[in-house]
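Review form for a predicted model. The reviewer records the input and the model, then writes brief findings.
Reviewer: anonymous (R2)
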Amino acid sequence: MDSSLDTIYRYTEFCIEKTSSNLRGLNARFQIFIGFSAVLIRLAVDIDSIWFRSMTCSLSLAVIIFCAMALNGLNVGPMAHPSVLLEDEWFKQGQEVHKGYIISCWVQALADYDFVISRKQSNLFIVICLFCAAIAFYSLGVILG
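Model under review:
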């Protein structure tokens, strides 16, 4: 029969994996926007109107800068290095103490993950708005050019 600590450990591990997956998904979106913005800059070079060209390129560059800043790695939580648990003081404590220590580290990491994800979601909203504006200026430049 599983102890309560085992259940909490497995659930916390699941939460860490799910949250980490969400963070990787956000990072992938930023990478995609970088690629599309670079393509849009290349396409904007062919716009006849200097004003529409410069607006499209400026907004696309802003998207790339926001995405690069959002992809900047941040430390998440006080993760215990496995070597710490091998030290005599911890090693002799037993599995229950180890799991409790790991869970407490993961709980702090989850709080940090939530902050990072919230910040990245805000940046993603800004990126989407800037990219839509760049597309609008590109479209107008093509139509009116």
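Findings: The two ends are 73 Å apart (CA to CA).
Further findings: Residues 4-144 form one domain.
Recommendation: see findings above.
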